[in-house]
Amino acid sequence: MTRDATASWLLEQEARALLTRLDAVRPFVLQETSLPAAAVSPGGLAAIEDYLQAGRREVRAEVRRFLRWIRAEGRYASPARQQRRFTLMRLRFNITLSEFDVFSEVITQRSEHDTGV
Q: What pTM was computed for the model?
């Protein structure tokens, strides 16, 4: 396997790992518990989950586009170009997952004794 082919294969495996991580993300409503007085309204929880699901769908579609690209014309791109494209995708992936953390921290803070309700 040439160095360029190895780079393509490694980046493909990394992208596939991102899809596996996305599949492991449980719905937000199943992750968070809070005191009833600090609970977010059902409509609010639904809106948060819809927003987070849309982000995950967009990232999943982007990873799949990358996989199609790296298996086709991207296979002939330089390892530097492949890495650059993967890195931008990975940054968007991390941003999407960090949004989940932001909502989680807000809900947790709402249920804290001194700062919540």
A: 0.82
Pick the closest to residue 29 from 13, 12, 46 (CA basis). 46
Maximum Cα–Cα distance for the chain, whole Å?
61
Distance CA 59, CA 93 (A): 6
pLDDT tens across the length of the chain (117 residues)? 676 788 899 999 999 999 999 998 887 667 656 666 667 778 888 888 899 899 999 999 999 999 999 999 999 999 999 999 999 999 999 999 898 888 777 777 766 656 544
Total domains in the chain come to 1
Is 116 inside any structural domain? no
